[in-house]
Q: What sequence folds into this?
């Protein structure tokens, strides 16, 4: 019972005992009409209070039902989220493993790349030195060929002179 209901009931009992003088007749008692009105007002008030209580209960029940559905949906969403994380997790792990492998290969590639560049420089230097020596060799062979021709011509001239001297000595010995 609410405070307002208690107040009305105490006023009704006071009215019935003749202590309230608002609608009292000249002889100090409530008229039947006043008493009926008070009872009617009180019963109307009680009916309104009961109606309010019923509506409160209905609203509370609807809220509880909504909360129950919300809890069920929350559980369902949590399950879906777990399933999604379960699907995403292996891929994340696999990607992480591949990334680690890539990092490891990159670490190995860096010194290999530097070694490769060093070897390429050495190769280019060696190739250049080889080509230079090869050119020098070709030049020397060409010079040798030229010199051999000169030597050959010189030998022919010497042979010719030796033959001439030999003829001169033979003719001088004959004479």
A:
């Amino acid at each position: 019972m609410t405070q307002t209901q208690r107040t009305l009931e105490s006023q009704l009992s006071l009215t019935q005992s003749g202590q309230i003088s608002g609608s009292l007749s000249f002889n100090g008692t409530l008229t039947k009409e006043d008493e009926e009105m008070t009872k009617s007002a009180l019963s109307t008030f009680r009916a309104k209070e009961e109606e309010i209580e019923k509506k409160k209960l209905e609203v509370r029940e609807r809220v509880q039902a909504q909360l129950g559905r919300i809890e069920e949906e929350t559980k369902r969403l949590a399950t879906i989220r777990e399933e999604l994380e379960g699907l995403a997790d292996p891929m994340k792990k696999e990607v992480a493993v591949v990334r680690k492998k890539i990092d490891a290969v990159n670490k190995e590639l860096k010194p290999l790349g530097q070694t490769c560049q060093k070897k390429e420089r050495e190769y280019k230097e060696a190739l250049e030195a080889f080509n230079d020596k090869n050119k020098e060799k070709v030049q020397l062979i060409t010079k040798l060929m030229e010199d051999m021709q000169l030597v050959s011509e010189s030998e022919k001239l010497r042979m010719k002179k030796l033959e001439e001297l030999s003829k001169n000595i033979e003719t001088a010995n004959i004479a």
